[in-house]
Write a structure and sequence with these properties.
It is a single chain. The chain has helices at about 35-50, 50-60, 115-125, 145-160, 180-190, 200-205, 215-230, 250-255, 285-305, 310-320, 370-380, 390-395, 400-405, 410-430; strands spanning about 15-20, 25, 30-35, 80-90, 110, 130-140, 165-175, 190-195, 235-240, 265-270, 335-340, 345, 360, 365. It is of the alpha/beta class and about 450 residues long. The protein folds into two domains: about 15-70 and about 385-395 and about 405-440, no CATH class; about 80-320, Alpha-Beta Barrel (TIM Barrel), CATH 3.20.20.70. The strands form two sheets. Strands 4, 5, 6, 7, 8, 9, 10, 11, 12, 13 and 14 form an eleven-stranded mixed β-sheet that branches. Helix 1 runs antiparallel to helix 2, helix 3 (about 115-125) packs parallel to helix 4 (about 145-160) and helix 10 crosses helix 14. The relative contact order is 0.14.
């Protein structure tokens, strides 16, 4: 493999830095530096010996390697992104669904207009004029609540205009209920639309049947045409949930791209409320191999000036280039919350009806004390074994919901994927540095 073999070593002996190819990542700052071949070889040996040996070698190279500091003082931010769980029901019955079939373990229900209106009012009223917010419509399957989505957009646009607040919209859908009128509406309001698919027809129908046990692939394929017709005004992508049953990712990406998707992202199933579909043990090594193969296809196409749909490598390369060290893996509870059909806030859309992520209600507003306590407890500085992992500032400790419910079975995979990403970063910056200019 041109990019080199990913490093899957368990429990890295040094948490100060990591060498991938001829690049070194400084763990605490997420800064990346180029080395000569000899320097990289010597530093790699020193890092394998542990911090006591690595620190002097890094100093000899003129690289400061601060250790993990004390947890930062955590302050909550104004909410800038809100997921409206407009439908806690779904017409599909995916066995691995984080929402337990769409209902989050409760009765099937839909959000009422009073809840949606109050949630939008809270969001926009808390935003300074001239600012911007994002509203994501989630489920279950959100298109079950089509009228509520349209009413919410119309109302949010009106309320936003009155306060000079720009509102952006996104939707995550299984794609089976989209109509031409829906697509035109999404295009008019510049939606980002993510369609959940798990592969070609045979694979997708096995993993994503409807409640009667029938496959959903053909229906999705039929409903895509109007979305594709509006690609100039809809940011359209596909999202794959990776289970032990669809680990042939090169084929999965090709099959989904053949439907017309220009962007296909994959996400491993780590935590499943039913236990179905979660990756375990050797699945992660196979996942890494498959993602690396997709990454090589993306790299070959990119270096040749062609587009390739695999989104994950482009995402990690952009994050490496920006070099922003993280204390958390995402914006959950910080500036992103979800509201469910009952009007309760949660840390994100995956924590709906989960007491571990409860963050207040619409009656009293977001619970800032609960948000701050959650963020303080989840900061990477407090997580074990994150404190001694070289990848800590890139992954930020991982997905809060997955870690709280499933622990950290994927750390070796994450390090292996980031190692591959670093090697790819070195190749792309050397061969086509202009690629990064378009990512700003």
């Amino acid at each position: 493999m041109t990019g080199g073999l990913p490093d899957l070593k368990r429990k890295p002996p040094s948490g100060l830095a990591h060498v991938a190819g001829d690049l070194v990542l400084m763990a605490e700052t997420a800064a990346i530096f180029g080395l000569s071949g000899a320097q990289a070889a010597n530093l790699r040996i020193a890092l394998q010996a542990g911090d006591a040996t690595a620190a002097p070698e890094l100093a000899r190279l003129g690289l400061e390697a601060p250790t993990l500091g004390a947890p930062p003082a955590v302050g909550v931010h104004p909410v800038r992104a809100l997921a409206l769980t407009v439908s806690q029901t779904c017409n599909l019955a995916c066995g691995y669904c984080y929402a337990a079939g769409g209902s989050f373990g409760g009765a099937d229900t839909r959000m009422g207009w009073d809840v949606a209106k109050r949630a939008i009012d809270h969001l926009i009223d808390a935003t300074v004029p001239g600012g911007g917010v994002k509203i994501a419509f989630m489920g279950g399957e959100p298109m079950v609540a089509r009228d509520l989505i349209r009413n919410s957009v119309t109302y949010a646009n009106k309320r936003g205009a009155a306060r000079a607040v720009q509102v952006g919209y996104s939707l995550t859908t299984n794609g089976t209920l989209i109509s031409a009128e829906d697509a035109a509406f999404f295009a008019c309001h510049r939606f980002a639309v993510t369609v959940s698919l798990d592969g070609g027809q045979a694979v997708n129908d096995r993993l994503r049947p409807d409640r009667a046990g029938k496959g959903s692939f053909a229906r999705v394929a039929q409903r895509l045409a109007p979305l594709l017709d509006h690609r100039d005004r809809i940011s359209l992508g596909a999202r794959v949930t990776v289970t032990p049953h669809n680990l042939d990712l090169p084929q999965v990406v090709d099959d989904i791209a053949a439907l017309g998707f220009a962007s296909v992202g994959v996400s491993p199933m780590i935590s499943s409320p039913t236990g179905q579909g979660a990756l375990v043990g050797r699945d992660f090594a196979q996942l890494l191999s498959a993602m690396t193969e997709c990454g090589e296809a993306w790299m070959t196409a990119t270096l040749a000036g062609r587009a390739h749909p695999f989104a994950n490598l482009a995402t990690v390369l952009g994050e490496l280039h920006r070099g922003n060290p993280r204390s958390h893996g995402c914006g959950a509870a910080r500036d992103y919350l979800a509201v469910d059909a009952s009007g309760d806030y949660s840390a994100c859309h995956r924590f709906v009806k989960d007491p571990l992520g409860a963050m207040g209600d619409l009656e009293n507003g977001p619970d800032d004390a609960a948000r701050a306590a959650f963020l303080d407890a989840r900061t990477v500085e407090r997580q074990t074994p994150c404190q001694t992992c070289w990848a800590r500032r890139l992954c930020g400790g991982g997905c809060h919901q997955e870690v709280l419910h499933a622990g950290r079975p994927a750390c070796d995979f994450v390090r292996g994927w980031l190692d591959y990403g670093l090697r790819s970063y070195g190749r792309l910056t050397a061969a086509q540095p202009d690629w990064f200019d378009a990512q700003v």
